[in-house]
Amino acid sequence: MNNILVTGGAGFIGSAFVRHMVVAYPDCNIICFDKLTYAGNLDNLLPVSDEENYRFERGDIADRRAVQRALDDYAIDAIVNFAAESHVDRSILDPDAFIHTDVVGVYILLDEGKKHGIERFCQVSTDEVYGDIHVGRSIEDDRFLPNSPYAASKAGGELMVRAYHVTYGMDTVVTRGSNTYGPYQYPEKLVPFFTTEAMDERMLPVYGDGKQIRDWLHVDDHARGVDRILRFGKPGEAYNLAGENQRLNIDVTRRILELLGKPQSLIRHVPDREGHDRRYAMTAEKARSLGWNRQFDFDQGLEATVRWYQENEWWWRKLKTGDYLEFYRQQYADRLESVS
Ligand code: NAD
Ligand code: TYD
Description:
single chain; alpha/beta; Rossmann fold; 7-stranded parallel beta sheet; 12 helices; about 45% helix; binds nicotinamide-adenine-dinucleotide
């Protein structure tokens, strides 16, 4: 695999993967293909923007012509698809874009990839396809029970990947990552949202009792996991990339406030997210069998992440303007008003 198309490579996890690959494989060309939605950000790629083996193309994965052109122009051997609408709350407000990118976009990428004869297609998926896990931990053969429009759209994309493998013999692999945190995450997700809000001493809207459980994975561990599965995963297989670090949301929130030296009184318990999954939990045994191990301890990783947002206001402050403020109003204004 010499020429790798990384779709959605300007987002949070995709950009960590691009930064990793450009440096780790100087003999490979890494082509980032991204629509640059509100979540795509070329600042995330500044650390590699001058590297000779890195290129950027703006385009939509659901645009057949644009995908075709990129595959031909760069003689692509492999596609790694990070491109997605990725925020559960936005999927509840309006699922439309989720179907466009996470379902139709994946189909177009597969179909053009097949015609072009690529060697491997790697789909980046999520633990949310398994749904709410009351007890135990999900393994790769467990059934899909997605509960949000986001999770359902990711499940739909994944099932199309499976169909292209079974029906057309395409060489595919799937990664299912758990909740990811780290630098360069758009400040709508829990860790960067609460960190940057708390820095400004604004209220932190914890949904419901805050006792939901998420399994946290550092973004650099996630990126290295995708690399490993891209290279060593068996065709047609899926692999959980689990942090195996389960935490209550309220504990993560309290810790962020402690790390920032801000008062716990900033916490507001607001009306819950609709259809909110109580717990995600997976086992990473299968990915470990390919030699992947997470390297970040959650407590140290969270501390370093909070410090990164403290030291990089240039990166996030300009994102919390314009359309972001409209999303904030829709998502939080009534919730916060109802409890104050
Ligand atoms: P993100 O929202 O930060 O980035 C998504 C990227 O995709 C952006 O750069 C955006 O511009 C691009 N994009 C969106 N629609 C596109 C389209 N139609 N064509 C081309 N590019 C498009 O997301 P993320 O958190 O980096 O997640 C990356 C992938 O990992 C997603 O597939 C997501 O489902 C999956 N995932 C995320 C997490 C997490 O905790 N963030 C956990 C597990 C899996
Ligand atoms: P999020 O970062 O949106 O990831 P996901 O929904 O994919 O797990 O949310 C992580 C957890 O934090 C989830 O249980 C919802 C909760 N949460 C809040 O309580 N308040 C918030 O404002 C946000 C964004 C999330």
